[in-house]
Design goal:
This protein is α/β, with parallel strands linked by helices and about 240 residues long. The chain is about 35% helix and about 25% strand. It binds adenosine-5'-diphosphate (ADP) and magnesium ion. Adenosine-5'-diphosphate binds next to strand 2 and helix 1. Keywords: ATP-binding, Hydrolase, Lipoprotein, Nucleotide-binding, Transport.
């Protein structure tokens, strides 16, 4: 029933730091799989490579070496037109930087992928969703006029209405108060129960403890894989790393 939807093998990422031979390797040979309906969390200290890994595995940033497969497709081999459709319809992203269009109202940001795919827009449903996630601003306000927390909710709402099969989220609750964070987590959990695969970067141990599987990263290396993690195991795994 639960099929494999993500498979990355020996993924490395080098970035240029200026000059000819100044290539810095920031991810070292990471292999990982994830299934439909699975809630996977990626935890690790700041600078350990979490965002870089998420970008590589989601098709946004080509690894220097290694392979990436999402839903049977190598996203780096798609032609640009197909790649745009793939990103819009099959995978969803919640970025640390929100990636919203500041000059558009919140509502338009949420329905943008639906409009581009010529899908039906159920206004009532979207207003209800915004209510559910405690969005307290006017959906007609421009994103540029919203607070960080409200912007994050717009980015989350956009993914929640998109019906994609895989969701990548980078610290999705980072800018939120704990009540809103719990609500968002609950909605992501509901999606996994419907078969969506969610891959979430977080530094919140309590939140990672509620996911199905957690991986810990340190200095660009995958260190531990914890099935049904609990907060104590995660805490131990992360503090062990510090020694
Ligand atoms: N384009 C880049 N050029 C140089 N260094 C980078 C670049 N992107 C990331 N890094 C470095 O790689 C490491 C991992 O970054 P990142 O994936 O953002 O970590 P995390 O999300 O865990 O905080 C950091 O030390 C960061 O400074
Ligand atoms: Mg990051």
């Amino acid at each position: 029933m639960n099929e494999q939807v993500i498979n990355i093998k020996d993924v490395t990422k080098k970035v240029s730091t200026g000059g000819k031979s100044n290539n810095l390797e920031i991810l070292h040979g990471i292999s990982l799989t994830a299934n439909s309906g699975e809630f996977l969390s990626i935890v690790g200290p700041s600078g350990s490579g979490k965002s870089t890994l998420l970008h590589c595995m989601s098709g946004l940033s080509k690894p220097t070496s290694g392979s990436v497969n999402i839903l049977g497709i190598d996203p780096y081999k798609l032609r640009p037109s197909k790649s745009a459709v793939f990103r819009r319809t099959q995978v969803g992203f919640i970025f640390q930087s929100y990636n919203l269009v500041p000059a558009l109202p919140a509502f338009d940001n949420i329905v943008l992928p639906l409009r581009l795919s010529r899908k039906k827009i159920d206004k009532e449903k979207i207003y209800q969703l915004l209510k559910n996630i405690n969005f307290n601003a006017n959906p007609n306000n421009f994103v540029s006029d919203l607070s960080g927390g409200e912007r994050q909710k717009v980015a989350i709402a956009r993914v929640l209405v998109s019906n994609c099969k895989v969701i990548f989220a980078d610290e999705p609750t980072g800018a939120l108060d704990s009540v809103s964070g719990e609500i968002i987590f609950g909605l992501l959990r509901d999606l996994t129960e419907k078969g969506v695969c969610v891959v979430m970067v977080t530094h919140d141990i309590e939140m990672a403890a509620k996911t199905d599987r957690a991986i810990t990263l340190r200095d660009g290396k995958l260190r531990k894989i914890l099935d049904n993690p609990n907060a104590q195991d995660l805490f131990d795994a992360l503090s062990e790393e510090k020694k």
